[in-house]
Design goal:
The chain is mainly α. It has one domain (23-222): Fumarate Reductase Cytochrome B subunit, CATH 1.20.950. The protein is 62% helix and 3% strand. The chain is built from 9 helices and 2 strands, in the order H-E-H-H-H-H-H-H-H-H-E. The chain has helices at residues 17-21, 30-56, 75-102, 105-110, 115-126, 140-164, 170-176, 179-206, 208-216, and strands at residues 24-26, 220-222. Strands 1-2 form a two-stranded antiparallel ribbon. Helix 6 packs across helix 7 (170-176), helix 6 packs antiparallel against helix 8 and helix 8 (179-206) packs across helix 9. It starts with 16 loop residues before the first helix and ends in a 15-residue tail after the last strand.
Length: 237
């Protein structure tokens, strides 16, 4: 039998006897919000510096990133910025993955993903009927996007390490094949992340309360139910 919807709590609503026993928290706890914005800064640094590195040895002859989009005046500066962003991205990513798995946040928010739900979500989007009023629940397309970008994040780190230390990490580099293939994989992962960011930012601008929730924490919900499918969240009064 499915669990009943979890009601979010406003500041002015007194806790019931049952609710007073249970711990309550924001939809996005402080740790999640901090890691989200740290990751955003790290990705910005890595993309801008990565484009500088790319410009010095292009893969596609027709593609050259303009100077106002890159970070680093010289190639060495771009590499230094890239390594700086890389360590922030890796350490913060490990912390985020550990937190999401240990707390069950990923399991509650991103799983399961059913083909039926995915087709229904795509159909709603094509008919312009897709809404995102419930901040506590991700639709099937959002789940796949977030799971996919996490997988891409793992691959881009692996390919980046293989590019950085191809001799010391020769076994890792061998998984990709040649050095040029590693570069192409790294470039395609970057393109996938940029595409995700464009969609992510566009959706956030269409639903501004998602940005506010990531800044303030969003509505108050019962701990452990913040990500339960079907939970109905109301903005704090």
């Amino acid at each position: 039998m499915p669990s009943p919807p979890v009601k979010s709590l406003s500041r002015n609503e007194p806790l019931s006897r049952k609710e007073s026993v249970r711990e309550v928290q924001r939809l996005h706890p402080p740790a999640v919000r901090a890691m989200h914005w740290i990751n955003a800064a790290a990705i910005f640094i890595m993309i801008g510096s990565g484009w500088k590195i790319y410009n010095d040895d292009v893969i596609l002859g027709w593609l050259h990133f303009p100077d106002f989009l890159i970070i680093g005046k010289w190639a060495q500066h771009g590499l230094q910025w890239h390594f700086f962003g890389m360590w922030i991205f890796v350490l913060n990513g490990l912390a985020y993955l550990s937190y999401g798995i240990a707390t069950g946040r990923f399991r509650r928010k991103l799983l399961p993903v059913s083909p039926r739900e995915l087709l229904q979500t795509i159909g709603d989007a094509l008919r312009f009927r897709l809404t995102h009023d419930d901040l506590t629940h991700y639709n099937a397309v959002q789940k796949i996007m977030y799971l996919g970008v996490m997988l891409v994040g793992v691959v881009i780190v692996m390919s980046g390490l293989a590019l950085w230390k191809p001799v010391q990490l020769s076994e890792l580099a061998a998984l990709f094949g040649s050095f040029q293939i590693i570069r192409i994989v790294h470039f395609l992962c970057m393109a996938a992340i940029v595409t995700f960011l464009v969609v992510h930012i566009a959706l956030a601008l269409l639903v501004p309360q998602t940005i506010l929730a990531m800044l303030t924490g969003g509505p108050v919900v019962a701990a452990g139910d913040d990500l339960a499918p079907g939970a109905q969240a109301r903005p704090l009064r």
